[in-house]
Amino acid sequence: MKNTTILSLLLCAGLCLACGKKSTGQGLPDEFWPWVEPEAPAEPDSPAEPDSPADPDSPADPDSPADESSWTVVSSDFGELPDYVQIKASPEKLQGVNAIAYIAEIDLQKTSFEVWGINAPTLEGSNEPLQTPSEVYEAQGKPCVIINAGYFYTDSGKSYSSSLEVSNGTLLSPNINYASQDWKTIYYPTRAAFIEHSDGTYEVCWTFWANSDTHYIYDVPAENSWDAKPLQVPDASFPCTAREFEAKNAIGGSPVLLKGGVLKNTYKEELILIGADGRAPRTAIALKDKKLVLFVCEGRNMTEGVPGFTTEEVAKILLDYGCTDAVNLDGGGSTLMLVNGKEVLKPSDGTQRAVASCVYIK
User: Fold this and answer.
1) Cis, bond preceding 44 (omega within 30 deg of 0)
2) Domain count of the fold of the chain
3) Which structural domain, as residue segments, surrounds residue 319?
4) Within a domain: 173
5) Phi, psi of 101 (to 5 degrees)
6) What pairs with residue 72 in β-bridges?
7) Pairing relationship of beta strands 158-161 and 72-73 according to DSSP bridges
8) Residue 302 falls within a domain, yes or no?
9) pTM for the complete prediction?
10) Considering the domain boundaries, does residue 347 fall inside one?
């Protein structure tokens, strides 16, 4: 994501990772570690531009949900696609707000998703460069659909992922495992994950990585809050009985939007500072029956009058569409979908942003 000022950096929860090389053997930060000013600070978890606050005087119309039938199939606009992929465009309004949004719906009985990401499995960063979705498109054999994926930042010439990345059974990066606003009080959040297991099942959950031998999956998040003291470090029994992490492919983000058909939007518990209550471009990944749903929406008035959505609105949009489980991915200037290499919306940076991970469909 974009480099920002030191002040912005200090407000960002996810950037604790920048001092990962000051961590203990448990993969967690030292109790007191000195903050070293980075040469090129970045802000992995906050939008690069201010977002439009949701207007409480213009609520969504609850009597007019945009269900699946409200979306228009536009696959033919993008050339030849596999029979297991459909591209759909949103109606003019979603949640009562002007919308430009697209969904790629993929039949999971015929294929699955793949993950490209920088290789940084111990939160120590990578010398690999960030790549734009178009660069990933060319490097990965021109897959039919690509979206941007997890959070990230750069520091001192290295690239860091703040989000889980698993590709064909290989852990490229875990979810970031600590957060702070002042570099003195350290929190240990569980963060969102979308997982394909080796048995072909899929789930949305929360994860915590302590070290290369200790990596857990949870059915509920640790209920941290910036307004309270840090909770204990997640372990085999906290915040609930854990399962050992296992995945064939996986991507992390934040927050969990939906789980089991219930709206979650756990950005507060996950300690993620992404302007969740402001309207912005968003990217999400979801499950709908035996279908994978990849969602993107334009925002920040790249098209006049189209502000984007809050994370709660995205959760409701996906719930109305019929999704049961969903994870919010990196948004703002990172948000982009390519279909056969063609951009479906206007990136809010004005051009494609180089990112640390992508989800794609061959």
Assistant:
1) no
2) 1
3) 6-56+108-361
4) yes
5) -140, 150
6) 89
7) unpaired
8) yes
9) 0.86
10) yes
